[in-house]
Design a protein that fits this description.
The complex is a heterodimer of chains A (592) and B (474).
Chain A lengths: L8 H4 L3 H15 L11 E6 L6 E10 L3 E11 L3 E9 L2 H7 L17 E22 L3 E6 L4 E8 L5 H35 L8 H10 L21 H5 L6 H5 L4 H12 L22 H8 L26 H7 L49 H23 L20 H4 L14 H7 L35 H8 L4 H17 L7 H18 L5 H28 L21
Antiparallel strand pairs in A: 1-4, 2-3, 3-5, 4-5, 5-6, 5-7
Helix pairs in contact in A: 2-4, 9-15, 10-17, 11-16, 15-16, 15-17
Chain B lengths: L3 H13 L12 H7 L6 E11 L2 E10 L1 E11 L15 H5 L31 H5 L4 H15 L8 E8 L4 E9 L4 E9 L7 E10 L3 E8 L4 E10 L14 H14 L1 H5 L3 E12 L4 E12 L8 E8 L4 E11 L2 E10 L5 E11 L5 H4 L12 H6 L3 H5 L12 H13 L3 E8 L3 E10 L2 E10 L7 E11 L1
Parallel strand pairs in B: 1-19
Antiparallel strand pairs in B: 1-2, 2-3, 3-4, 4-5, 5-6, 6-7, 7-8, 8-9, 9-10, 10-11, 11-12, 12-13, 13-14, 14-15, 15-16, 16-17, 17-18, 18-19
Helix pairs in contact in B: 5-6
Classes of the chains: A alpha+beta (592), B alpha+beta (474).
């Protein structure tokens, strides 16, 4: 398996720089500026240079024509540069006065008169080194999250280079500003750009892009998967597959009713007026109601597949980011205990363009082949690895469960059955995940009635290579993911207490799917017990298993990353000094 | 419109005889009032009261998107009995800040209750004459007498003023203490406390020293450790003659002044005014930055018979900024001002013009075009007088002869009513083609202020801001 990366954005898209400049300009002017900057900041020059970054694939979690999920390590020391122009206030007294309350202002007569000086700043010799989590889906565009602070160093040259003090100040200020920009704004910009490219229905776009899109569209049904099965493991007819239609695009939009959008708009604008009326928006989960892990559940893709092959997707969540707690990895090297699962909007439409369009995603590549790592966590067989590691974990976990809890329920493990041919594993087989929100019956009722009474399904993912008859088999299943209204409503009615429980759940689930080590057995047993209680309360639902799988995958990835980070840190401690301050999950990016 | 507490503070200055204009940062106050008048934003209601002569309260409620408000209290150790605090009696020129003429350059104690329109014991003559600043001989003599008496009692000047204000949703607290020590020395301490500020707040201390001929001011701000020094020196006109020595006996001055009034008739035909020069210097001890400026002003004195005018020129040599203003009272109801700024380093220039138009018509007159003769008040009197009362008819007799109202006060009040200004229209225009319009006046016993900012560059939506302030005080 090989990837081609093109580092030639200039030739690919003539208007790229123009658009990137515009986006950067808006991004720079969005936040309130310090009083010393008296004008808008304009990006006058922007060039990505000709030297491509070094990319190393650490992990590929999901791979298909229309979606991609992976983790890269990127090192860059190229010739890209960026020139900004603005005007600054040169009178220190002016900025002093403007930032102070007028009541205690000394009220100078004209000593605070303004003197504005045009300033030009060039950023060059940018050195980056970052772990990038990249999630691409045809529907939701490209999402990039930086695992660490990517900026290693850069050179700032300005109009005032001759003045040492000013130069040092600018260097310091701009470095910190740029860190913020890269961590917060750049993912948003890339997301918006990718939306413009791939999801023209979500953004107002030009007609030529639409044409481009239709030209480039490849029918994935032309090469149907070898073992097409639906969610319940039933084999699908080729006839049935061919009846799947590609043009489900408008349908996806119908998930957001126009009325709801209008109401959202009214709600967002409500604080500007003195309107006391809060528009009632149906079938939504308000962010304020949902806790951290709740959000993830609510926004995860509902993938309950039904045989009628209805193609829709969930737009519940617009944020698809992973955030992993760095502290845990610091604390225990491996086996991170608690990944902050933000969201995992897995790509939902199975049918879409070929992977050739990945080159537009903002990762600018030249034709080069990236060597995949050959150690045990090699990305070449992600799925099997998921299977093997988590089966270890699952084994130990279920062992623990059986020993510690005498009344253990029948174990119905949910596994991923791999494709018959091993060489198809990476390219065609895909793990389907299902959100935990599926499994939200009224927790209060089950609590009161006694959790043990309900036969529970220990949802330890116990994938094995042998497909047993009772296993739910999830293989690649294009376009079979209708949004389940049940799930949405259940998520909506979720009581606030659920969030804590959900986070507990995540906590509980975490160590099990990490590379479990023998010395953690004790801890795991407790966790397992807890988990069983949780699920006993939650009640059995066939759909919930995929949620666990999803969480398992994320936890595993988190563990992997944490381990790598730890290793990397051990190797090169100085570089990782500052990177632990950025644990705040990045903001959600709404498509505009 | 000035805030009520500001007005009261100025009344305190007037009552204690402090000349607040004799400092450097009031050098171009006239053109500043005419050009940089603040525009109201949103809706703002103020209820104020001078409850006792020593104590004033003010409550404010505003809405600019969000509702906010403030509560303020003020205590003055000197009774403020001589001012009109009721909103139907407040002299509008004092509240709305018209063209400011110069005070006579006496020592602070001596122009105590002299020609300040706020401080005269009889209600200030709200006439065009008062606006012009022509001081009648009588009040002149009066003032000198009072000043003479006051000068001999130093304890009279140790007054103080306390002021506090709490902005409610922001929890911003303002406090001010003004303490007068001697005739010439006054200390002000202002403080603001708010959570968002560094160190939770700032304190500004001001030491003001006014000797009539010159005024000095030193300041220290805890924010950045800013030290400042300002000074103003007056010469020419009345300041150059010997009578401006503040501590000369009042009698001598009085005679001198009267001789001025008679003998300088020819001189007053020429331009007759006072020069002031000054400078300011600031240094932030913590952030090691500073600033300075120099300035000069020529302003005609009230005794000048021609068109009153004020011209200032200030230079900031560090930043290369030159600022020139010119303001004049073209008619007794119309003032004009211009300002030009130029920066010799960056070649940036700015200009702005401002205008102030007073009207003694009713506030609605601006809109309806009603002339003052349309005032309905004098009408109902005569017909009523002719009819016999019902009781008289029942008793088969004529009405009792009514006592004739004295003609002189009626004439005076009517004349005063006509002379009294009821509204003002202020306008400004700057080089960004931004227009500011402000219409202030009195409707019944409410003082209102209606303002808008218009941007001519964006004709699609020209109104940048719109605001209405209503103030009632008792």
């Amino acid at each position: 398996m090989a990837f081609n990366f093109n580092w030639s954005p200039l030739t690919a898209d003539a208007g790229f720089y123009e658009r990137a400049r515009d986006l950067l300009t808006t991004a720079l002017n969005k936040s309130p500026k310090p009083p010393i900057i008296v004008d808008d900041i304009f990006v006058t020059e922007f060039n990505l240079g000709s030297v491509p970054p070094d990319l190393e694939i650490l992990e590929i979690g999901d791979l298909a024509e229309d979606r991609f999920r992976g983790i890269f390590k990127m090192c860059y020391s190229g010739d890209a540069f960026l020139t900004l122009a603005t005007r600054v206030q040169a009178n220190p007294l002016n900025t002093y006065i403007s930032a102070k309350p007028s009541f205690t202002s000394p009220e100078p007569l004209t000593a605070s008169s303004s003197l504005t000086i045009p300033l030009q700043i060039t950023l060059s010799e940018i050195k980056l080194s970052a772990f990038i989590i990249l999630v691409f889906s045809k529907q939701k565009g490209l999402t990039i999250v930086f695992r660490n602070d990517p900026l290693e160093s850069l050179k700032v040259s300005s109009t005032f280079d001759s003045i040492q003090f000013v130069r040092d100040y600018l260097q310091k200020t701009i470095e910190s500003k740029l860190r913020d920009l890269i961590m917060d704004e750049l993912p948003a910009i890339i997301h918006r750009l990718s939306l413009q490219l791939w999801c023209p229905d979500q953004v107002p776009k030009e007609g030529e892009e639409a044409k481009e899109e239709s030209d480039a569209a490849i029918n994935p049904l032309a090469t149907p998967p070898l073992d097409a099965v639906d969610a319940h493991g039933h084999r699908l007819d080729p006839v049935e597959i061919s009846s799947l239609s590609l043009d489900g695009g408008p349908e996806t939009q119908s998930l957001f009713s126009q009325k709801n959008l209008e109401k959202m708009d009214a709600l967002a604008n409500a604080h500007r007026t003195s309107s006391l009326i809060t528009p009632n928006i149906l079938e939504v989960v308000f962010r304020a109601w949902a806790g951290q892990s709740d959000k993830a559940d609510a926004t995860a893709t509902p993938s309950a597949s039904t045989p009628n092959l209805h193609r829709t997707s969930s737009y519940q969540g617009s944020a698809h980011t992973y955030t992993f707690s760095d502290n845990s990895s610091q604390a225990s090297g491996h086996a991170p205990s608690r990944p902050t699962l933000v969201s995992m909007g897995s790509a939902t439409t199975g049918l879409s363009l070929g992977s050739g369009r990945h080159s537009k995603a903002g990762r600018k590549k030249k034709m080069r082949v990236v060597n995949l790592r050959s150690n045990k966590t090699a990305a070449s067989e992600p799925v099997s690895e998921v299977g093997s590691t988590s089966s270890q974990a699952g084994d130990s976990g279920s062992e623990a469960a059986s020993t510690r809890t005498p009344m253990s329920e029948p174990v119905i493990p949910t596994t991923i059955r791999e494709a018959p041919e091993d060489d198809l594993v990476a390219s065609q087989t895909k793990v389907r995940f299902r959100p935990a929100a599926d499994a939200t019956p009224s927790p209060r009722a089950s609590e009161s009635s006694g959790s043990r009474a309900v036969p529970s399904v220990p949802v330890t993912a116990q994938p094995s290579r042998v497909a047993s008859p009772q296993e739910h088999v999830y293989t690649r299943q294009p376009s079979m993911f209708p949004s389940s209204p049940v799930q949405q409503t259940s998520a909506q009615e979720m009581p606030p207490s659920y969030s804590s429980r959900a986070s507990e759940k995540a906590e509980a689930a975490a160590p099990i799917y990490a590379d479990a080590k023998a010395q953690q057995q004790q801890f795991q047993q407790q966790q397992q017990q807890q988990q069983q209680q949780q699920w006993g309360r939650a009640g059995p639902q066939p759909d919930m298993s995929s949620v666990i799988l999803e969480q398992a995958w994320i936890t595993k990835i988190a563990g992997e990353i944490a381990r790598r980070v730890y290793d990397e840190k051990n190797r090169n401690p100085s570089f990782w000094e500052e990177s632990h301050q950025h644990d705040i999950p990045p903001p959600a990016y709404e498509p505009r | 419109m000035r805030e009520f507490m500001n007005y009261i503070t100025n009344a305190f200055y007037g009552a204690t005889g402090w000349n607040e204009d004799n400092k450097y940062n009031e050098l171009n106050a006239t053109s500043r009032e005419l050009i940089d008048f603040p525009l109201p934003r949103g809706l703002r209601l103020t209820l104020s009261s001078l409850a006792t002569p020593h104590f004033a309260t003010s409550y404010q409620l505003g809405s600019v998107g969000v509702v906010d408000g403030s509560i303020s209290y003020l205590h003055s150790s000197v009774p403020l009995t001589h001012i009109a605090a009721q909103s139907d009696k407040i002299p509008l020129p004092a509240l709305l800040r018209c063209y400011r003429r110069l005070h006579d350059l006496r020592s602070p104690g001596q122009h105590y209750m002299l020609d300040d329109p706020l401080s005269g014991l009889p209600p200030p003559p709200q006439s065009a004459q008062a606006l012009l600043g022509a001081v009648s001989d009588a009040s002149n003599a009066d003032g000198s007498l009072i000043g003479g008496k006051a000068g001999q009692d130093p304890s009279k000047f140790t007054h103080s003023l306390l002021y506090g204000r709490l902005y409610l949703p922001k929890s911003l607290l303002e406090g001010m203490i003004i303490k007068r020590f001697t005739q010439a020395l006054q200390i002000q301490v202002r403080a603001v406390s708010e959570q968002s500020l560094r160190n939770g707040g700032t304190i500004l201390g001001l030491v003001q020293y006014d000797k009539g001929k010159y005024g000095l001011e030193g300041l220290y701000s805890t924010d950045g450790g800013l030290l400042g020094f300002r000074g103003l020196y007056n010469f020419g006109g009345d300041a150059s003659s010997s009578n401006c020595d503040p501590w000369t006996p009042a009698v001598g001055e009085n005679s001198n002044h009267s001789s001025n009034g008679n003998g300088q008739g020819i001189e007053k035909e020429r331009i007759y005014g006072r020069f002031s020069v000054g400078g300011e210097l600031y240094y932030g001890t913590l952030n090691k930055s500073g600033g300075m400026s120099l300035g000069a002003r020529f302003a005609t004195l009230p005794a000048h018979r021609g068109t009153p005018l004020t011209a200032t020129l200030t230079i900031n040599p560090l930043m290369g900024n030159i600022n020139a203003t010119y303001a004049l009272l073209a008619r007794e109801y119309c003032s004009l001002a211009t300002r030009v700024e130029f920066n010799v380093y960056s070649y940036e220039s700015e200009w702005a013009v401002g205008m102030e138009l007073w009207s003694n018509r009713r506030p609605a007159g601006f809109l309806l075009g009603a002339s003052p003769s349309n005032d309905p008040e004098p009408e109902p009197q005569p017909p009523r007088k002719k009819e016999r009362s019902f009781q008289a008819k029942m008793e088969w007799r004529l009405d009792d002869p009514e006592p004739e109202p004295e003609p002189t006060p009626k004439n005076e009040t009517e004349k005063k009513k006509n002379d009294e200004y009821k509204g003002v229209l202020k306008a400004r225009l700057d080089n960004n083609l931004r227009i500011g319009l402000l219409w202030e006046g009195r409707a019944k016993s409410l003082i209102f202020s209606l303002g808008t900012g218009i941007d001519l560059h964006k004709l699609g939506e020209p109104f940048r801001s719109l605001g209405l302030e209503v103030q009632y005080s008792s």
